[in-house]
């Protein structure tokens, strides 16, 4: 019988705990998503080792724990299974994968330089609904926002 309270097969670290570990230089994050997924957005400082070419022997060794991540947790769990025989010290992945990371990071509101007060409160809700609906995240870009030429005289 399948239990709803089944213990996870692998150790998990929360996004907030991982952020603290990375900020303190206490962990190494290895992203097992494919190269195109990694290129579309990843945690700063993460190493890329796609599951399709994953080799536990190539993972960094040393005193810091190695944490694996993927999009949602399934591929990182598969990578942990592969690592179990040769590297039993590698036994932890990011809870919720990059989807969980994005949801946690979105709770840190950006500054609102143009006086928009509702933008920072809407963004986390939009990110959460995209995550729940399985939509891919928007790619990051540094494009300038469009501003109407009549911004000083038009109704706001």
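^ Assign residues to that structure.
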């Amino acid at each position: 019988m399948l239990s709803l309270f089944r213990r996870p097969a692998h150790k998990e670290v929360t996004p907030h705990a991982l952020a603290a570990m990375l900020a303190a230089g206490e962990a190494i994050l290895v992203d097992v998503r494919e190269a195109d997924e990694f290129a579309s957005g990843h945690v700063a400082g993460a190493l890329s080792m796609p599951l399709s070419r994953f080799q536990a022997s190539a993972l960094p060794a040393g005193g810091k724990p190695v944490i694996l991540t993927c999009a949602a947790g399934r591929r990182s769990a598969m990578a942990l299974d592969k690592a179990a025989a040769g590297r039993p010290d590698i036994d932890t992945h990011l809870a919720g994968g990059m989807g969980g990371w994005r949801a946690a990071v979105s709770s840190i509101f950006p500054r609102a330089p143009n006086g928009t007060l509702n933008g920072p409160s809407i963004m986390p809700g939009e990110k959460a609904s995209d995550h729940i609906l399985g939509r891919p995240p928007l790619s990051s870009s540094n494009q300038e926002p469009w501003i109407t030429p009549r911004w000083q005289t038009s109704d706001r």
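The longest strand covers residues 28-31.
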